Amino acid sequence: MIPIARPQMGEEEKQRVLEAMASGSLAQGPRVREFEEQFAAFVGAGHAVATSSGTTALHLALLGHGIGAGDEVITVPFTFIASANSVLYTGARPVFVDIAEEDFCIDPALIEAAITDRTRAIMPVSLYGQPADMEAITEIADRRGLAVVEDAAQAHGAGIGDRRSGTWGIGAFSFYPTKNMTTGEGGMLTTDDGELAERVRLLREHGMKVRYHHDVVGYNFRMTDIAASIGLAQLPKLPAKNERRRAIAARYDVELRGVFTPQVRTGATHVYHQYTLRVHERDAFAEALRDRGVGSAIYYPIPVHRQKPFLALGYGSESLPVTERFTAQVLSIPVHPSLSDDEVSAVVEAVNATAAKLGPMEAAAVAS
Ligand SMILES: Cc1ncc(COP(=O)(O)O)c(C=O)c1O
After folding, report:
1. d(CA 71, CA 92)
2. Which of 197-206, 269-278, 327-336, 353-362 shows the lowest per-residue confidence on average (mean pLDDT)?
3. Is 154 in the pocket of ligand 1 (CB under 6 A)?
4. Whose CA is nearest to atom 8 of ligand 1?
């Protein structure tokens, strides 16, 4: 079976982890600081703050802006639940805006109508490895006095023009094992705002600058030096791995038939955390791929506003038509950098044969 993800750990990672273990510095230490410096330089942001996960990076980003009870944060329902959960953790309320057909990310044309006098921030999600339309979003946020928190959990190395994800407002990245780079578990927050970075560092470690002197109620959202040492080994490999993902995606773009392939906005660099199709008769499609030895996955089978905890909070009746339609159609196929050319060919053959058997997406989309 060609799996949907295949995390890669090399000798370099093993060596660095052993060094960290031998150093005796296991919690947040010099390797975390080095990883922060290297990640900030990679992204092109003034500051980077390592965290225990992408979720805690998002949570800290909102706390760093002082967002809490009574506030609203505009985000999308077409994402992993952590985006919206991070808003709930602060006591604020996520307000869901639909995605654009073009890029699976927040539709900037719908944002202004969702702004109220409680809105404090916009949290676009750079889904599947394509940056949301950060320029249009930042223009609205600046004009309306709102913070921008980019959920860049899936967008390491993505960008628009010569600017990378994580350089508009705050960026929050995840290093979960299936991401384009990993630390096992881990996250990173990036910003050009030095004061914000300081606040976030304080909150990450129990409000403590001087040992056992606590200025505010904080958290333990630290990354370990063991995780950072994996990150230090993974980061230099990221550009080549992203290029391999992009090369595989380029083949799919040209060779796949009878399915909707993802679009890339002009000027955007997509790093294909996922290569996500829209298909006709998705369950049968996924089963047929499995029969031909090709794994696939649905990101995500239920939009956030219809997940149980959100229904309990009164969500669920919003009109989010693109999200609803795409939720029933999306299917991601393997695009990870360790795929061989033969495996890519096998995926192409399986997808094309299945689409031919079940009927092409074009006809189905017109009917739906
Ligand atoms: C879009 C998105 N946001 C947030 C997260 C949360 O990251 P983590 O799993 O590292 O907490 C993830 C990843 O799992 C994600 O894909």
Report:
1. 5
2. 353-362
3. yes
4. 54
pLDDT band at 321 (very low <50, low <70, confident <90, very high): very high
123 touches ligand 1 (CB under 6 Å)? no
Residue 82 near ligand 1, beta carbon < 6 Å: yes
Whether residue 83 contacts residue 36, with contact meaning beta carbons closer than 8 Å, is answered with no
CB of 190 within 8 A of CB of 48?
yes
Is the separation of the CB atoms in 261 and 277 below 8 Å?
yes
Question: What is the pTM for the complete model shown?
Answer: 0.98
Residue nearest to atom 12 of ligand 1 (CA): 153
Contacts with 330 (C-beta within 8 Å, 6 or more apart), sequence order:
104, 276, 277, 278, 282, 298, 299
Pick the atom of ligand 1 nearest to 53's CA: 10
Region 291-317 average pLDDT: 98
Cis previous bond, 275, omega within 30: no
CB 171 within 8 A of CB 192: no
Of residues 203, 210, 207, the one with CA closest to residue 189: 203
Q: How confident is the model at residue 360 (pLDDT cuts 50, 70, 90)?
A: confident
Closest C-alpha among 81, 83, 86, 46 to residue 63: 86
The answer to whether 58 and 80 are in contact (CB under 8 A) is no
The verdict on the CB of residue 173 being under 6 Å from ligand 1 is no
User: Which residues, at least 6 apart from 349, have a Cβ–Cβ distance to it below 8 Å?
Assistant: 292
Return the residue whose CA atom lies nearest to atom 7 of ligand 1: 54
Quick one: angle between helices 225-234 and 30-43, nearest 10? 40
The amino acid present at 207, given as its one-letter code, is: G
